[in-house]
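INTERNAL AUDIT FORM
Audit reference: QA-55
Scope: verify that the stored structure record matches its stored sequence.
Auditor: D.O.
Record contents follow.
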Amino acid sequence: MTTLDKNENPHESLLALLTQADKETADLPLKDILITDFSRLLPGPWCTQLFADMGATVIKVERPGSGDMSRANPPVFKGRSVYFNSVNGGKHSVALDLSSPEGQEIAHKLIAQSDVVVESFRPGVAKKLGIDYEKMKPLNPRLVYCSITGFGQTGPLSHISGHDLVIQALSGFAGMSAQPGQAPDVPGFQAADYAGASIAAIGVLAALMKRNQTGEGSNLDVAMFDSLFAMCNISLTGAMSRNTGNTGVPAIEVWGGNPRYATYLTKDGKSVAVALLEKRLWVNFCTAIDRTDLIDHDEGLEDRHSDHGDKADQYRAAIAACCLAQNRDELIDEMTRHGVPMCPIYSPDEALNSPNVAGRGLIETASHPEEGDIPQIVNPLAISGLARHRRPHAPDVGEANDAVLKGLGFDDETIAQLHKNGVM
Protein backbone atom coordinates (compact mmCIF):
# COMPACT_ATOMS: atom_id res chain seq x y z
CA MET A 1 0.00 0.00 0.00
CA THR A 2 1.19 3.51 -0.78
CA THR A 3 1.78 6.28 1.71
CA LEU A 4 1.36 10.03 1.50
CA ASP A 5 4.16 12.40 0.74
CA LYS A 6 5.47 13.94 3.96
CA ASN A 7 4.29 17.38 2.86
CA GLU A 8 0.69 16.27 2.35
CA ASN A 9 -1.88 16.46 5.15
CA PRO A 10 -4.39 13.62 4.80
CA HIS A 11 -6.79 15.19 7.33
CA GLU A 12 -7.07 18.33 5.23
CA SER A 13 -7.09 16.27 2.04
CA LEU A 14 -10.06 14.22 3.21
CA LEU A 15 -11.98 17.30 4.26
CA ALA A 16 -11.29 18.96 0.92
CA LEU A 17 -12.28 15.91 -1.15
CA LEU A 18 -15.48 15.16 0.76
CA THR A 19 -16.77 18.58 1.78
CA GLN A 20 -18.47 21.03 -0.53
CA ALA A 21 -18.32 24.34 1.28
CA ASP A 22 -21.31 26.63 0.93
CA LYS A 23 -22.69 29.68 2.70
CA GLU A 24 -24.76 27.55 5.07
CA THR A 25 -21.93 25.30 6.27
CA ALA A 26 -19.01 27.76 6.22
CA ASP A 27 -19.56 28.96 9.79
CA LEU A 28 -20.88 25.78 11.41
CA PRO A 29 -19.10 24.83 14.68
CA LEU A 30 -17.78 21.41 13.61
CA LYS A 31 -16.75 22.27 10.03
CA ASP A 32 -13.13 21.18 10.52
CA ILE A 33 -13.90 18.00 12.46
CA LEU A 34 -13.44 14.60 10.79
CA ILE A 35 -15.43 11.70 12.23
CA THR A 36 -15.13 8.03 11.41
CA ASP A 37 -18.39 6.27 12.21
CA PHE A 38 -18.38 2.49 12.60
CA SER A 39 -21.84 2.45 14.20
CA ARG A 40 -25.10 1.21 12.71
CA LEU A 41 -28.83 1.07 13.41
CA LEU A 42 -29.88 3.91 15.75
CA PRO A 43 -27.86 5.30 18.68
CA GLY A 44 -24.55 5.82 16.89
CA PRO A 45 -25.91 7.01 13.54
CA TRP A 46 -28.26 9.51 15.19
CA CYS A 47 -25.37 10.81 17.30
CA THR A 48 -23.15 11.29 14.25
CA GLN A 49 -26.10 12.74 12.30
CA LEU A 50 -26.14 15.56 14.84
CA PHE A 51 -22.43 16.12 14.18
CA ALA A 52 -22.93 16.10 10.39
CA ASP A 53 -25.71 18.65 10.81
CA MET A 54 -23.29 20.84 12.77
CA GLY A 55 -20.76 20.77 9.95
CA ALA A 56 -18.58 17.74 10.71
CA THR A 57 -17.38 15.50 7.89
CA VAL A 58 -18.67 12.05 8.81
CA ILE A 59 -17.31 8.93 7.09
CA LYS A 60 -19.69 6.05 7.64
CA VAL A 61 -17.86 2.70 7.47
CA GLU A 62 -20.15 -0.14 6.35
CA ARG A 63 -19.79 -3.75 5.38
CA PRO A 64 -19.35 -4.24 1.61
CA GLY A 65 -22.51 -5.22 -0.22
CA SER A 66 -25.47 -4.80 2.12
CA GLY A 67 -24.03 -2.03 4.29
CA ASP A 68 -25.80 -0.95 7.48
CA MET A 69 -28.70 -3.38 8.02
CA SER A 70 -31.07 -0.50 8.71
CA ARG A 71 -30.93 0.32 4.99
CA ALA A 72 -33.60 -2.40 4.77
CA ASN A 73 -35.91 -0.77 7.35
CA PRO A 74 -39.41 -0.01 6.02
CA PRO A 75 -41.08 2.15 4.81
CA VAL A 76 -39.34 3.48 1.71
CA PHE A 77 -39.65 6.59 -0.44
CA LYS A 78 -39.47 4.91 -3.85
CA GLY A 79 -36.82 2.36 -3.05
CA ARG A 80 -34.66 3.67 -0.20
CA SER A 81 -35.43 3.51 3.52
CA VAL A 82 -37.03 6.60 5.02
CA TYR A 83 -35.54 5.74 8.42
CA PHE A 84 -31.99 5.21 7.13
CA ASN A 85 -32.11 8.53 5.36
CA SER A 86 -33.25 10.26 8.56
CA VAL A 87 -30.09 9.35 10.50
CA ASN A 88 -27.44 9.29 7.77
CA GLY A 89 -28.02 12.43 5.74
CA GLY A 90 -24.93 14.17 4.45
CA LYS A 91 -22.53 11.40 5.49
CA HIS A 92 -19.97 9.71 3.24
CA SER A 93 -20.13 5.91 2.96
CA VAL A 94 -17.08 3.69 2.76
CA ALA A 95 -17.61 -0.05 2.28
CA LEU A 96 -14.77 -1.77 4.09
CA ASP A 97 -14.13 -5.40 5.03
CA LEU A 98 -12.79 -5.00 8.55
CA SER A 99 -12.11 -8.72 8.85
CA SER A 100 -9.31 -8.51 6.28
CA PRO A 101 -5.78 -7.25 7.06
CA GLU A 102 -6.03 -4.75 4.19
CA GLY A 103 -9.34 -3.43 5.50
CA GLN A 104 -7.93 -3.02 8.99
CA GLU A 105 -4.90 -1.17 7.65
CA ILE A 106 -7.17 1.25 5.79
CA ALA A 107 -9.21 1.71 8.96
CA HIS A 108 -6.01 2.47 10.90
CA LYS A 109 -5.00 5.12 8.38
CA LEU A 110 -8.45 6.67 8.52
CA ILE A 111 -8.57 6.68 12.33
CA ALA A 112 -5.10 8.19 12.48
CA GLN A 113 -6.50 11.25 10.67
CA SER A 114 -9.82 11.42 12.51
CA ASP A 115 -10.77 13.74 15.31
CA VAL A 116 -13.51 11.39 16.52
CA VAL A 117 -14.37 7.70 16.22
CA VAL A 118 -17.84 6.42 17.08
CA GLU A 119 -18.45 2.67 17.25
CA SER A 120 -21.27 0.48 18.52
CA PHE A 121 -19.77 -3.01 18.43
CA ARG A 122 -20.39 -5.43 21.27
CA PRO A 123 -17.64 -5.23 23.91
CA GLY A 124 -14.55 -6.99 22.60
CA VAL A 125 -15.43 -6.84 18.90
CA ALA A 126 -13.48 -3.64 18.19
CA LYS A 127 -10.40 -5.23 19.77
CA LYS A 128 -10.90 -8.36 17.67
CA LEU A 129 -11.01 -6.18 14.56
CA GLY A 130 -7.87 -4.33 15.66
CA ILE A 131 -9.54 -0.91 15.91
CA ASP A 132 -10.01 -0.59 19.69
CA TYR A 133 -8.98 2.54 21.58
CA GLU A 134 -5.87 1.06 23.17
CA LYS A 135 -4.50 0.12 19.75
CA MET A 136 -5.54 3.39 18.13
CA LYS A 137 -4.28 5.73 20.85
CA PRO A 138 -0.59 5.46 19.83
CA LEU A 139 -1.58 6.24 16.23
CA ASN A 140 -3.59 9.29 17.26
CA PRO A 141 -3.14 10.51 20.86
CA ARG A 142 -5.64 13.35 20.27
CA LEU A 143 -8.39 10.94 19.22
CA VAL A 144 -11.82 11.14 20.87
CA TYR A 145 -13.01 7.52 20.80
CA CYS A 146 -16.66 6.89 21.70
CA SER A 147 -18.08 3.39 22.24
CA ILE A 148 -21.88 3.12 22.45
CA THR A 149 -23.27 -0.17 23.77
CA GLY A 150 -26.37 -1.34 25.53
CA PHE A 151 -24.84 -1.88 28.97
CA GLY A 152 -21.29 -0.58 28.75
CA GLN A 153 -17.85 -2.14 28.36
CA THR A 154 -17.96 -3.55 31.91
CA GLY A 155 -20.60 -4.77 34.34
CA PRO A 156 -22.76 -7.88 34.71
CA LEU A 157 -24.90 -7.14 31.63
CA SER A 158 -22.16 -5.94 29.27
CA HIS A 159 -22.54 -9.08 27.16
CA ILE A 160 -26.23 -8.42 26.36
CA SER A 161 -27.19 -6.79 23.06
CA GLY A 162 -28.44 -3.23 23.43
CA HIS A 163 -32.02 -3.45 22.19
CA ASP A 164 -34.11 -0.47 23.22
CA LEU A 165 -37.04 -2.47 24.66
CA VAL A 166 -34.72 -4.55 26.86
CA ILE A 167 -33.10 -1.43 28.29
CA GLN A 168 -36.39 0.36 28.89
CA ALA A 169 -37.61 -2.76 30.71
CA LEU A 170 -34.56 -3.04 32.97
CA SER A 171 -34.41 0.70 33.73
CA GLY A 172 -37.85 0.63 35.37
CA PHE A 173 -39.15 3.10 32.82
CA ALA A 174 -41.32 0.66 30.84
CA GLY A 175 -42.88 -0.59 34.07
CA MET A 176 -44.39 2.79 34.88
CA SER A 177 -47.45 2.01 32.74
CA ALA A 178 -48.04 -1.46 34.20
CA GLN A 179 -51.54 -2.28 35.42
CA PRO A 180 -52.43 -5.23 37.71
CA GLY A 181 -52.79 -8.41 35.69
CA GLN A 182 -51.56 -6.81 32.46
CA ALA A 183 -48.17 -6.52 30.82
CA PRO A 184 -47.11 -2.93 30.12
CA ASP A 185 -47.56 -1.61 26.60
CA VAL A 186 -44.53 -1.52 24.32
CA PRO A 187 -43.27 2.08 24.57
CA GLY A 188 -44.02 4.25 21.55
CA PHE A 189 -40.62 5.93 21.58
CA GLN A 190 -37.08 4.50 21.45
CA ALA A 191 -36.08 6.30 24.63
CA ALA A 192 -32.98 4.20 25.34
CA ASP A 193 -31.62 4.59 21.83
CA TYR A 194 -32.01 8.34 21.82
CA ALA A 195 -30.78 8.69 25.40
CA GLY A 196 -27.57 6.85 24.50
CA ALA A 197 -27.13 8.92 21.34
CA SER A 198 -27.71 12.19 23.19
CA ILE A 199 -25.26 11.40 26.01
CA ALA A 200 -22.71 10.25 23.43
CA ALA A 201 -23.06 13.53 21.53
CA ILE A 202 -22.69 15.57 24.71
CA GLY A 203 -19.70 13.45 25.76
CA VAL A 204 -17.91 13.81 22.43
CA LEU A 205 -18.39 17.59 22.41
CA ALA A 206 -17.10 17.78 25.99
CA ALA A 207 -14.10 15.61 25.06
CA LEU A 208 -13.30 17.89 22.13
CA MET A 209 -13.38 20.87 24.50
CA LYS A 210 -11.08 19.00 26.87
CA ARG A 211 -8.73 18.23 23.97
CA ASN A 212 -8.56 21.94 23.16
CA GLN A 213 -7.41 22.56 26.73
CA THR A 214 -5.05 19.61 27.27
CA GLY A 215 -4.14 18.36 23.81
CA GLU A 216 -5.19 14.85 24.84
CA GLY A 217 -7.92 12.60 23.49
CA SER A 218 -10.52 10.62 25.45
CA ASN A 219 -12.03 7.16 25.59
CA LEU A 220 -15.81 7.34 26.15
CA ASP A 221 -17.74 4.31 27.46
CA VAL A 222 -21.38 5.28 26.79
CA ALA A 223 -24.06 2.79 27.84
CA MET A 224 -27.62 3.19 26.66
CA PHE A 225 -28.77 1.80 30.01
CA ASP A 226 -26.76 4.32 32.01
CA SER A 227 -28.01 7.13 29.80
CA LEU A 228 -31.69 6.25 30.13
CA PHE A 229 -31.37 5.42 33.83
CA ALA A 230 -29.92 8.87 34.49
CA MET A 231 -32.95 10.39 32.72
CA CYS A 232 -35.36 8.38 34.89
CA ASN A 233 -34.86 10.67 37.88
CA ILE A 234 -38.62 11.40 37.97
CA SER A 235 -39.83 7.82 37.52
CA LEU A 236 -37.37 6.63 40.19
CA THR A 237 -38.36 9.19 42.84
CA GLY A 238 -40.63 6.75 44.70
CA ALA A 239 -37.99 4.03 44.74
CA MET A 240 -35.31 6.44 45.96
CA SER A 241 -37.63 7.61 48.74
CA ARG A 242 -38.28 4.00 49.80
CA ASN A 243 -34.55 3.28 49.76
CA THR A 244 -34.15 5.80 52.59
CA GLY A 245 -36.83 4.11 54.67
CA ASN A 246 -39.72 6.38 53.65
CA THR A 247 -42.90 5.25 51.89
CA GLY A 248 -42.58 7.10 48.59
CA VAL A 249 -46.21 8.15 49.08
CA PRO A 250 -47.72 10.37 47.89
CA ALA A 251 -46.04 9.76 44.56
CA ILE A 252 -45.40 12.31 41.88
CA GLU A 253 -48.21 11.76 39.38
CA VAL A 254 -47.22 12.43 35.77
CA TRP A 255 -48.23 9.05 34.34
CA GLY A 256 -52.01 9.38 34.00
CA GLY A 257 -52.98 8.98 37.66
CA ASN A 258 -53.63 12.71 37.85
CA PRO A 259 -57.02 13.32 36.14
CA ARG A 260 -55.96 16.87 35.30
CA TYR A 261 -52.85 15.64 33.45
CA ALA A 262 -54.18 12.90 31.23
CA THR A 263 -55.71 12.00 27.87
CA TYR A 264 -59.39 11.88 26.94
CA LEU A 265 -61.61 10.84 24.04
CA THR A 266 -63.69 13.36 22.11
CA LYS A 267 -67.09 13.05 20.42
CA ASP A 268 -65.60 12.18 17.01
CA GLY A 269 -63.48 9.33 18.41
CA LYS A 270 -60.26 11.34 18.44
CA SER A 271 -58.26 12.25 21.53
CA VAL A 272 -56.91 15.23 23.40
CA ALA A 273 -54.21 15.81 26.00
CA VAL A 274 -55.20 17.82 29.07
CA ALA A 275 -52.58 19.67 31.15
CA LEU A 276 -54.34 21.49 33.98
CA LEU A 277 -51.66 21.14 36.63
CA GLU A 278 -51.68 24.67 37.99
CA LYS A 279 -54.60 25.93 40.05
CA ARG A 280 -55.19 28.98 37.85
CA LEU A 281 -55.56 26.74 34.79
CA TRP A 282 -58.02 24.51 36.63
CA VAL A 283 -60.02 27.59 37.58
CA ASN A 284 -60.07 28.66 33.90
CA PHE A 285 -61.36 25.24 32.89
CA CYS A 286 -64.02 25.03 35.61
CA THR A 287 -65.23 28.50 34.70
CA ALA A 288 -65.34 27.62 30.99
CA ILE A 289 -67.59 24.58 31.60
CA ASP A 290 -69.67 26.32 34.29
CA ARG A 291 -68.49 23.97 37.07
CA THR A 292 -67.00 26.39 39.58
CA ASP A 293 -68.15 23.98 42.29
CA LEU A 294 -65.11 21.87 41.40
CA ILE A 295 -62.67 24.61 42.41
CA ASP A 296 -60.85 23.87 45.67
CA HIS A 297 -59.74 27.20 47.09
CA ASP A 298 -57.43 25.44 49.55
CA GLU A 299 -55.47 23.69 46.79
CA GLY A 300 -51.72 24.08 47.32
CA LEU A 301 -48.53 23.50 45.35
CA GLU A 302 -48.28 19.97 46.78
CA ASP A 303 -51.46 19.07 44.87
CA ARG A 304 -50.01 19.98 41.49
CA HIS A 305 -48.51 16.55 40.78
CA SER A 306 -50.86 14.54 43.01
CA ASP A 307 -53.73 12.19 42.12
CA HIS A 308 -56.12 14.65 43.86
CA GLY A 309 -57.35 12.00 46.27
CA ASP A 310 -61.11 11.76 46.81
CA LYS A 311 -61.71 14.56 44.29
CA ALA A 312 -60.15 12.57 41.45
CA ASP A 313 -63.32 10.79 40.29
CA GLN A 314 -65.26 14.06 40.12
CA TYR A 315 -62.49 15.78 38.22
CA ARG A 316 -62.06 12.94 35.76
CA ALA A 317 -65.81 12.68 35.12
CA ALA A 318 -66.14 16.41 34.48
CA ILE A 319 -63.21 16.51 32.06
CA ALA A 320 -64.39 13.35 30.26
CA ALA A 321 -67.92 14.70 29.86
CA CYS A 322 -66.62 17.99 28.46
CA CYS A 323 -64.41 16.22 25.93
CA LEU A 324 -67.09 13.74 24.80
CA ALA A 325 -69.56 16.57 24.18
CA GLN A 326 -67.63 18.05 21.23
CA ASN A 327 -65.53 17.06 18.26
CA ARG A 328 -61.80 17.36 18.86
CA ASP A 329 -60.97 20.47 16.86
CA GLU A 330 -64.06 22.37 18.00
CA LEU A 331 -63.20 21.54 21.61
CA ILE A 332 -59.62 22.76 21.18
CA ASP A 333 -60.79 26.03 19.66
CA GLU A 334 -63.16 26.66 22.57
CA MET A 335 -60.64 25.77 25.28
CA THR A 336 -57.97 27.92 23.65
CA ARG A 337 -60.29 30.92 23.82
CA HIS A 338 -60.66 30.31 27.55
CA GLY A 339 -56.91 29.97 28.15
CA VAL A 340 -57.16 26.25 28.88
CA PRO A 341 -54.10 24.15 27.84
CA MET A 342 -55.76 21.32 25.96
CA CYS A 343 -54.32 20.09 22.69
CA PRO A 344 -55.12 17.49 20.04
CA ILE A 345 -53.31 14.16 20.07
CA TYR A 346 -52.02 14.08 16.52
CA SER A 347 -51.34 11.09 14.33
CA PRO A 348 -47.86 11.12 12.76
CA ASP A 349 -49.37 12.40 9.50
CA GLU A 350 -51.13 15.26 11.30
CA ALA A 351 -47.98 16.16 13.23
CA LEU A 352 -45.80 16.20 10.11
CA ASN A 353 -48.19 18.54 8.33
CA SER A 354 -49.15 20.69 11.32
CA PRO A 355 -48.96 24.50 11.25
CA ASN A 356 -46.45 24.53 14.10
CA VAL A 357 -44.01 22.27 12.24
CA ALA A 358 -44.29 24.52 9.21
CA GLY A 359 -44.04 27.66 11.31
CA ARG A 360 -40.84 26.48 13.00
CA GLY A 361 -39.31 25.33 9.71
CA LEU A 362 -38.84 21.76 10.90
CA ILE A 363 -39.31 20.07 7.52
CA GLU A 364 -37.16 20.72 4.46
CA THR A 365 -36.64 18.70 1.30
CA ALA A 366 -33.48 17.15 -0.10
CA SER A 367 -33.09 16.42 -3.79
CA HIS A 368 -32.16 12.82 -4.57
CA PRO A 369 -31.21 11.73 -8.12
CA GLU A 370 -33.51 8.69 -8.00
CA GLU A 371 -35.95 9.35 -5.17
CA GLY A 372 -36.77 12.93 -6.17
CA ASP A 373 -37.48 15.52 -3.47
CA ILE A 374 -37.62 13.77 -0.11
CA PRO A 375 -38.59 15.29 3.26
CA GLN A 376 -35.99 15.76 5.98
CA ILE A 377 -36.51 16.67 9.63
CA VAL A 378 -34.47 19.79 10.35
CA ASN A 379 -32.03 19.79 13.25
CA PRO A 380 -33.61 21.96 16.00
CA LEU A 381 -30.33 23.86 16.41
CA ALA A 382 -30.55 25.15 12.85
CA ILE A 383 -32.75 28.04 13.94
CA SER A 384 -29.86 29.22 16.16
CA GLY A 385 -27.29 28.94 13.37
CA LEU A 386 -25.52 25.92 14.86
CA ALA A 387 -26.70 23.33 12.29
CA ARG A 388 -27.55 23.26 8.62
CA HIS A 389 -31.15 23.88 7.54
CA ARG A 390 -31.00 21.58 4.52
CA ARG A 391 -29.51 18.18 5.12
CA PRO A 392 -28.22 16.29 2.05
CA HIS A 393 -29.62 12.83 1.42
CA ALA A 394 -27.99 9.67 2.78
CA PRO A 395 -25.25 8.06 0.67
CA ASP A 396 -25.35 4.75 -1.17
CA VAL A 397 -23.08 1.97 0.12
CA GLY A 398 -19.45 2.71 -0.70
CA GLU A 399 -20.25 5.97 -2.47
CA ALA A 400 -17.09 7.63 -1.12
CA ASN A 401 -14.70 4.68 -1.43
CA ASP A 402 -12.37 6.18 -3.99
CA ALA A 403 -12.45 9.71 -2.59
CA VAL A 404 -11.48 8.49 0.88
CA LEU A 405 -8.73 6.22 -0.42
CA LYS A 406 -7.29 9.04 -2.50
CA GLY A 407 -7.48 11.34 0.51
CA LEU A 408 -5.45 8.77 2.44
CA GLY A 409 -2.82 8.71 -0.32
CA PHE A 410 -3.61 5.51 -2.24
CA ASP A 411 -2.88 5.56 -5.97
CA ASP A 412 -5.31 4.41 -8.68
CA GLU A 413 -3.62 1.05 -9.17
CA THR A 414 -3.81 0.20 -5.47
CA ILE A 415 -7.44 1.34 -5.27
CA ALA A 416 -8.36 -0.88 -8.22
CA GLN A 417 -6.65 -3.86 -6.56
CA LEU A 418 -8.50 -3.25 -3.28
CA HIS A 419 -11.80 -3.33 -5.16
CA LYS A 420 -10.77 -6.46 -7.01
CA ASN A 421 -9.86 -8.21 -3.76
CA GLY A 422 -13.24 -7.37 -2.20
CA VAL A 423 -11.70 -5.23 0.52
CA MET A 424 -13.92 -2.33 -0.52
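Auditor finding: record pair retrieved intact. The first strand starts at residue 34 and ends at 37.
Action required: none
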